Each structure stands twice: as structure tokens, then as C-alpha cells.
Protein 1
Amino acid sequence: MLEWLEGCGEAFYRAFLESDRYLAYLRGFRTSMVLSLFAVLLGVGIGVILALIKYMGNHMRKGIILRALNWIANIYIAVIRGTPVYVQLLIIYFIIFGKLDASPMVAGVLCFGINSSAYVAEIIRAGIEAVDAGQMEAGRSLGLSWGQTMASIILPQAVKNILPALGNEFITLIKETAIVGTIAVLDVTKAAQNVAAITYDLLPPLLITAAMYLIVVIILTKLLGMFERRLAQSDRR
Amino acid sequence: MIDVKGLCKSFGDNHVLVDIDEHIEKGEKVVIVGPSGSGKSTFLRCLNLLERPTAGTITFEGRDITSAKTKEVNQIRQKMGMVFQHFNLFNHLTIMDNITLAPVKLKLMSKEEACQKAMELLHRVGLADKAAAYPAQLSGGQKQRIAIVRSLAMNPDVMLFDEPTSALDPEMVGEVLDLMKQLADSGMTMVVVTHEMGFAREVGSRVLFMADGHILEQNTPEEFFTHPKNDRLKDFLSKVL
Ligand SMILES: Nc1ncnc2c1ncn2[C@@H]1O[C@H](COP(=O)(O)OP(=O)(O)OP(=O)(O)O)[C@@H](O)[C@H]1O
Ligand SMILES: [Mg+2]
């Protein structure tokens, strides 16, 4: 028993502390977080546009341009949500980026940003649609344009519905980016594999990596819960 | 002031308004009554183009608004205040911001002017102490009075009311009707859809009876309520009076 524990300690020491290997994990961890953050930001950027197109498609008289945009948005969302992100990653890096000399990190952000945008679009559209239709009518009846009403009345109220779901999307994304090592981005999972290649012992590095994801997800979930309660409070007043 | 000619509105196969002709003079207080689903709201919402008429023309202050471009429609709406059954106050803004948002955004007033005007109006309706409050902190009657103030802040030429007291608890109906009476006395042109027959009788200069998308009868309140001619109207009045 004691021997086994000692063995564990030894393995952990080699996987984490020896030759300052924890630095590799931390650098990898930072890469994972930065990648997820930029991907979510890109996702929100594209997602807002998609959401507005779909919202307009549902609620306005449709011109030919709007109809075409709506059609494109629907296909985009269906394709992105209907295919594995792993396949998307391979296509973007090896096919689309294959001929360019771009960094894998950029490809990673692009891939996960595009992937996330399809989900974010639905989150935002649902958030906008949850705002009572009377708010738009009240704004328009005062003479405000559609855009002005959207910007100063609908979106500020939709944000309350959107932010918590967006936080969840960020958390999901952090875990999903674990496959980005495939295209040679040194994220925390890849760092663990690299350590294992040196120590010839895969289990300890993987456990360490899993623990890092778990801790970050738990912390973010807690923060999100606190944030949601704050939002709910300002509703009650 | 408002001239409606051959107004039709259908939702698919549902012909909600059928060939309506109507003329509303400046200073008139037109009250519209009728059974549920008869098209009263739809008629009112066509007047400021919240609903697009299927056919017909609406002329407001000499301008054909049914053929106007979106930009012009926005300008026309500034002159037509609208009060909704469910108030539709902007929940994320204070009462002051609710009132000043449109005049400031549309560059009709500076922020200071708009605030000053808002405070004046709030004093007039006795809600000056609520300027910094949020809609959720107000009673239904207070919300509806604020909604009226929000419209008035745009200096409209006509005010459209769609059942402004129907969502209120009975004890709050009076305060809203009182404000509307004040407004009527001040000479405002008003078009009011309501189930408050007392208000129609007392404040209306003309009462319209609407059923199945037609205006079946209209008259002065006196004649309308004491000598109804149309059978549908007689039937309707026997139920609501
Ligand atoms: N946006 C819409 N889409 C489809 N049908 C509609 C729409 N708005 C109204 N209608 C239909 O038009 C008819 C008239 O509705 P409207 O709201 O004008 O009646 P109303 O006289 O205001 O009734 P109430 O007293 O209940 O408010 C109803 O049959 C309703 O179902
Ligand atoms: Mg109605």
C-alpha cells in the first residue's frame, strides 16, 4: 500500500514538477483559454449578424435580399451544427489553410469561432425573441426606426437573456478545444501528451489535465450562477 | 386631419377590415366600441401603420401615409401618439428615460429640454416623484399614465388609445380615465378603443360601432346610446350597459 502511494507520488512528481514541467501545462492552459475566448468573441460577432438576419426573416416583410440572406443563414447554421467540429477543424486547417502559411492558432480560433457562431446565433435570436413584441411596437409608434428600437430598446433587454447562455457556450467551448492539438496547437491537452512522450507514462499527465479543465469549469459555473442571480435581482426590484 | 378611404386589411383568408371610409377632424374625440374580434385594434393600428393595410388609403394632415417611405412613416408616427393595453413601457429604463428616449434619439429636443418637458408632464399627472423609478416599481394605473406621458412628450397631433384600461385592476381605471378626460379638455384629437361606455358617453364627440370589420353605426354619444338603430348595436348595448 505504502509502496503504491510512493509510486503514485513519484509518477506525479515526474509528470508535473520534474524539469519544471508544470510550466508546460500552464502555457498550454493559457493557450486553451485564449483560444476559447477569441473563438467565443468571433462566434458572438458572426452570431449577432446571423441572429438579426433570422429575426428579420421571422418578423418583417421579406424582400428578395432578406429572403436570400435568411436562406444562407439557415444553411450555414444547419451545416455547422450538423457536422462534427473535429471534421470542421481538419477541413479548415488542412484544406482551406493548407495552401496558406497561417499559424495553427489562427486556424483554431477561426474553426471554433465559426462553429460557436451557429450556436451563439440561436442563443441570441432566442434572447431577442423572448423580449415582448410590444416593446418593438412601442418604440416604432414613437417614431423610432427599426434599427434605433433594436439598438436602444430590444437588445439591451435581450442581453439579460443572452449572457448566461453565452457563458455556458464559453464553458462548453473550453472543453471542446481539447482536440486542437491535432493541428499542432500547444493547448493543455497537447502539453500533457508531450510530457507523456518524455516520461513514458500517460495516466498522470492526463489526470492533471482533466483536473485543470474541471477546476476551471467549476469556477466559471459558480461565477455564472452568481451573475445570473444578480441579473434576476435587478428584475425583481 | 385623418382621412380613411376604402381601407381593407386581411390576414390570409381572414378579412378583418372591409372597405372602411372614415374621416376624423382635428379636435374630435372618436370612441370606437364593438364586440371582441371585430377589428377595432386592427383599425387603430392601421392608422399609424403598425399594421399595413391590404388596400385603401389613409391621409394624415394632407399626406398619403400608405404610400410613404419607411423614413416618412417614422416621421409621421412622431405626430401620432399610441397608448397600448399593456402599457409597453421600456422595462430596462427609468421613467425619466422612458419619456426622454425618443425625443432625444430623434433629435427633437436636447437632453435638458426633454428632461424639463418630462418633469413638467410628470408634475401634471402627479408622478414627479417616480422619475427615477423603474416600470416594475409602479402600479398598473401609474404605468399607463406614464405611457400616456411618454407619448405626450413627442407633442403629438393625435393620440390613439387601444383599450387603455382593460388590463387594469378596477380601482385604477379611474385615474387613467381622468387623465384622458383632462387630455380631451385640453383639445387633443383622440381616437379611443374602449369598453368603458361611461367614458364614451361623457368624453366622446362621436361614437363608432364596429362589427365584422365594418363600421355599422356612428353618432353623437347621446343618440348612439339612447336611440341605437342597428340591431347588432342594440344587441351589443343590451349586453354591455
Ligand atoms: N397579426 C395578426 N395575424 C393574424 N390575425 C390577426 C392578427 N391581428 C389580428 N388578427 C385577427 O383579426 C381579427 C380582429 O382582431 P382585432 O384585434 O382587431 O379585434 P378587436 O376588435 O380589437 O378585438 P378585442 O376587443 O378582443 O381587442 C381577429 O379575428 C384576429 O384573430
Ligand atoms: Mg383589440
Protein 2
Amino acid sequence: MRLELRDVFHVYAPGTPFEVEALRGVSVAVEPGEVLGIVGGTGSGKSTLVQHMNLLLTPASGEVLVDGVDARTVERGELRRRVGLVFQFPEAALFAPTVEEDVAFAPRRLGLDGGEVRTRVRDSLEALGAGHLAGRSPFALSGGEKRRVAVAGVLAMGPEVLVLDEPTAGLDPATRGDLLALILGLKAAGISVVLVSHDLDEVAEVADRVCAIERGVVRAVGTPAEVFYGAAEEDLAPATVQTVVALGEAQRGVGRPVRFRETLAALEALAEG
Amino acid sequence: MRVAGYDPATEPYEVRKRLGILFQNPENGLVAPFVEDDVAFGLENLGVDREEMRARVAEAIEAVGLSGYERREPHTLSGGEKQRVALAGLLAAGPEILALDEPTSMLDAAGRREVLGRLQALRATRTILHATHHLEELVDADRILVLNGGNLVSDVTPARLFSDAELLRENRLVLPTVQRLALELGLSPAELRTPERLARAVLARAARGAGAR
Ligand SMILES: Nc1ncnc2c1ncn2[C@@H]1O[C@H](COP(=O)(O)OP(=O)(O)OP(=O)(O)O)[C@@H](O)[C@H]1O
Ligand SMILES: [Mg+2]
């Protein structure tokens, strides 16, 4: 599925002294089967932007299009199923007595039969490496385990686009690595993933394209190399890119690697002459 | 357990005066209707007088870059803004011991640098416990305690930890990107802490190679 935001504006608390223009004419598309990274400073509008993708927030003006069709004409439940949204700190919303029931909640509401719900619950917990937690209470899990369960709950709806808002914030490296592997696995299965993150190193590893936003405006969209090398001096580049840029003159022979492996190979070639 | 000599079970008030905690999920710490009340909350319990309280709150809000947010409702803030409010509360109270759980998890690069800089400055007069999975935030620590499965498995300097591949692996710790690049290139990860230093080391090696040929 192709999801497009066209010239979207969003205003919080309009007409009050605390009015905030959080999005000011944002246009960006999520192409079928791609991983789109969204980066930008604190309060730049990332969470606001992604909540427009399933119309959890509605634009003050501008459009959201699902395969070219106005998203408002798509039935709400249908839209929420097709565009799955995992919030910042999603574990705060876990509520059921067992992990299994928590993950089953959304698919059951879709009206699926019991067998199908069970299959989905099992598959999504397994995809998150959390199959063994099914019978546990979500409240007695570690932070990383809770995060896995919360993501599984959205995955169980069978989304065509999975939107993750800071999914790895505060996570241990093992859980973080598993989540990044999951993102690439979903992509291989044709599911689009939107990844909002402050961790530019992880965006560099998995994103096909990057959208950089600043104070509610899209500052750059393009391949990771285009966006990160374009912004290397402005705090918006992963450590790999910063290292290559710091080579100065010598950078010319190295190209514009972004991922860890590519960067390592390029630096090795340079060092060996 | 004793905190500055006090038992938290029998003298929680004395402990709270001296120890401030920043929770991992900033939402868990925000309690008041407005940002400024939230930042003042810790101070109210310390019996600080009104005037001084107002000054310290204003100063802390300014320090975390949230001037103008005083009358905002905490639940309407972005993730990083919430984390800054929680931190301002801690700065205003100014306890002897600060315990921080992933204090920069929601911040952008500039915010992270600011907070780390502030913690660095506080070290002269305070004790800081900084829990994190991001080892780059601990490069200047006096000591790093490595925990695994509820046990203290190591008490080392950052330089030791960064060059001990086995200790890292056993505890599933991942070096920061720059140090990982250094290690894979056969350079010393403990010394090459910034992209600039790594780049210089790579260039130096290339020059040596060229000279030898
Ligand atoms: N419910 C709300 N009411 C009023 N203002 C809001 C509300 N939610 C967000 N804002 C404001 O809108 C701006 C954008 O917020 P948003 O949460 O989209 O930022 P973000 O890029 O996700 O930031 P972070 O990286 O800190 O999570 C911020 O200035 C924030 O204070
Ligand atoms: Mg956000």
C-alpha cells in the first residue's frame, strides 16, 4: 500500500494562548514495502506526523491518501488495521491479565474467529521473540519484554504499514537488535515500515529513505546518503557519516557510505591504500 | 541498604531529601497539572521558602531549554519535552545523589549533549548514578558497574570495559559505533572516542602505508 501525506498542517489547541502549529505543510509518501526513517529534533513534529498516517489526528488542512484515495473515505477500523501504529513507550498501554490476551485484544475486535486470532497471537509473539511469554502477566515483565509484547499487539492486526514511534528508546542492545531485524523481515514480506528514531545510527542501518523534519517542516527527504551527507555538519548524521566527513579531503575517494559494514569496508580500503 | 547513612525503610524522608530519581519513562514522573508545578514538586517536599522555590524552578526550566512552557500541561508535551521537564524537577531539587535511568533516551543529539554536559558539571559537587545501554554516555565515568541477571559482575573503568571484548560479549553490551569501527580496523577503541579522532587515525595509517610503499 502507498500512503501519502499532502501539504498537511496540524494545530494543537487552536485559538488558545498555547496554540502550537506542529505541522506546517508536510508532504511525504510511504512507498509500498519500504522502510522510511523519520528523524528530527525534540518537538519537531515527528509523533504528530505519524499519528496522521492512520488519522488518529486529522489535519487542519491538507490530505492523507491511501493508494491515492482520501483516507477519510476509508472506514476508520479498516484504516487503523491497515496502518498499525506503535506509540512512544507503548508498554504503558498494556492492560490484560496475560500477554496472550493483551495481544489478542485488537485482532479479536476485528471480528476474526477464535482459531485465526490464536494463530495471529502466536505468530506475532514469535516474530518478536516473545512466544515464551504468552502466559505471563504483562506487568511482571522487563522493559524490553514489555516493548516486544506491545509491538506484537499491533503486528497481530496484520497491518500493511507498521509505524513505530521511537521503538528502541531505552532498550537493551539485544532487544534493539531483534527489533531492527524484525523491521527488515517485515520489509522482506512486503510490509512498509515507518521508523521514528533519535538514534541515527539505527536509522542508517535499516532505512531505504529518510525524512528529516524540523519545526513542523520537511527539511529533506531522500536516500540515507543524500539526507545524512547533506546534514553532516548539523547534528543530523550518524557516527558512520560523521567519521567519513571528518576525513576531509580524503573523503573523495571513499564515496558516501552510511551503513556500518559499507563504512568499515571504505575505511579499510583507505587505510590499506 | 543505606543512603548517606539513612535507612530508606525507616527514614524515607531523609533519603528523599538526598536522593533524586529520574525514571526511564518520563511519564511516570510527571504528576502536576502544569509544567512549573511539576518542576516545583520535589522542592515543595523539602520545605524551601516560596521566593527561593520560584527562583530555582525558573532557573531549572531555563536550564533544560523549556522557557515559555511553564503553563503547559505535561501530557500535551512531546516525548523529549517530557523528559526535559522531569530532568528540570531533579535539577531544581538539587539532591546530593542523582539516580538517572536512561536520562537521554528521548532526546535529540543537541539535547543529549546538553544533558551530559550538565551532568558533567554537577559531578564536582554531586554523586551521579547513570544507568544506560548507551556506552558512549559513560566514557567519562569514574567507574562502570556491569549488572547481569541481578548480579554485579564487574566494577571497571570505561577504558578497561571498552577494550575487554569478552566482558562486553558476556554481558551483551555493544560498543558505540565509532569504537566498533576502531576495533574492526584493529585500532584502539578506548582512545578513539570521537569520529574526528577515528578519522585521524585512519588517515595516519593510510599515510604510513603510502610512505612504506
Ligand atoms: N496535545 C498537544 N497539545 C498541545 N501541543 C502539543 C500536543 N502534542 C504535541 N504538542 C506540541 O507539538 C509539537 C510537536 O510535538 P511532537 O510530539 O509531534 O514532537 P516530536 O517530534 O515527536 O518530539 P519528540 O522527539 O520529543 O518526541 C511540540 O512542540 C509539542 O509541545
Ligand atoms: Mg515524539
